[in-house]
Amino acid sequence: MNSKTVNYFEASARTRITCLVDTDSFAEICPPHFRHTSPHLARLNAPVAFDDGVIVGRATVAGHSVLIASQEGKFNGGAVGEVHGAKLRGLMERALDERPVAVLLLVDSGGVRLHEANAGLIAISELMRAVLRTQAAGIPVFALIGGSCGAFGGMGIVSRLCAEVVISEQGRLGLSGPEVIETVKGVEEFDSRDRALVWRITGGKLRRAQGEATHLVDEDVHSFRSKTAQLLGAYAEEKLKPAGLAGLTEIQRQLAERTESYAEARDGRIIFQVSGFTDLEAVALMPIDAFNRQLGEAL
Amino acid sequence: MNILFDRLFGTGQHHIAIDGDFLGGTATVGDREAVIIGTCNKAAINCSTSLKVAGAILAAVREDEATFRPPRPIVFLVDTQGQELSRHEELLGLNGYFAHVAECCELARCQGHSLITVIHGEAVSGGFLAFGLMADRVCALPDAQVRVMDLRAMAKVTKIPYDKLLVLAEESPVFAPGAENYWRMGAIHELWRKNDDWRRCLIAALTQTEQEDGRARLGLERGGRELAAPIAALVATA
Lengths: 299, 238
Fold this sequence. Notes:
The complex is a heterodimer.
Chain A: H1 13-20, E1 27-29, H2 39-43, E2 54-61, E3 64-71, H3 82-98, E4 102-107, H4 117-136, E5 141-145, H5 154-161, E6 164-168, H6 178-185, H7 195-202, H8 204-209, E7 215-217, H9 221-237, H10 244-261, H11 269-274, H12 280-283, H13 288-294
Parallel strand pairs in A: 3-4, 4-5, 5-6, 6-7
Antiparallel strand pairs in A: 1-2, 2-3
Helix pairs in contact in A: 3-4, 4-5
Chain B: H1 2-9, E1 14-19, E2 22-29, E3 32-39, E4 43-45, H2 47-66, E5 74-83, H3 87-92, H4 94-110, E6 115-124, H5 125-130, E7 137-140, E8 145-147, H6 151-158, H7 162-171, H8 179-184, E9 190-191, H9 198-206, H10 215-221, H11 228-237
Helix pairs in contact in B: 2-4
């Protein structure tokens, strides 16, 4: 498969892995023939998947060892249940033994799976602690976001715990999805069918401009691969250091500044403006490399 | 709130300021001073509450480091209806603020602070994830309401009839609201009763904190979550 022509947004969880890693390097852990399905979905007569919607394994990317997980957005919106969450957490624990250069999380998820809501919420809490522990041991976790379900709910929190957040323009990152806000608070609060608005609140370019994502890449899997390879090279050279008290104090200052500067903001336009984009209508059409250059990123 | 503080810490043993939905201060637990951080009024957690919680954790870590005293325990008093649902909060990146709170909890834990959660009202979804569930040990008062979503809303979203969910909720703790269910699944360590001496309960809970995340093992032992522990172990070691 030529990863240059494969669109990340449309690709399945399995195709994303195949195109992202070195040829034939992927070895799946708990493959579908193990049949670890969700008993809770079965009890509700809902369809099950033999991998419970997430593929985990090991591979190399540009020769660097990685552990990798890929959520299938087309199965229950990539939502996290007991088995799905346990696979992700187990992978983090495996990283402590295996010490790969990084763990890659190909996030495509709306968050907790409601059919097993309590199990999903607890699983995400366990995953949060596991990600932090893995990173405290010097192994960075990368969140790759560019699927149709984005990274929402608990997976939006998990993504932001990751040392790197690589996102595409169509990738979306947040906590409560626009549909949920519209349902509870009304259409005047958030019109979930206004695609341009949704993009300006949760989309890849907005998240990159405000610093919630660390890198913005093109929509093809190849672009995700080359950015990942570049980051792996950097981490292989220089290990991840924990933020510590000084680092978190600085983040606290930055977040407080954001809350204050954008106290009234309800549209991403203002954030693009502050980031130096003068022609706001053109931002949406701007090629990724030009956008990144505008943000002062060396390519 | 003072009635609750008196029962948890003893009369005159607490100095906790209430600032809107946010609680912050210190109290005596056993023979030690503890840092108290919390929310009340079923707070909808937004960016600004998150910063208050994170700021208070960082301040405790900083003070204890500067004065070379043993890290004080941190008690989270949790009452939250979940994350605030608003376009403004989403635009700011509320998930990122929650992640920051979680990182502050982990820093405190690594620095030797014990983290205890006492749920004194509601503990719902994202608000619960932000800091309550990050503690070493989670305790629930008798009236605690713990959930992701109530059953009627769940029936609507999953398109499974409400009556069927009610029946299934009887046999399985995995989706129905209730502190008891979270206890069976290992995420709540202790359920305190109405007539318990909560002050003693809290002192005892503090002696039982552990740094490792033992919730999946606990869920397995209590029969409420039988797959999480073995599947994670399989992936970790296969």
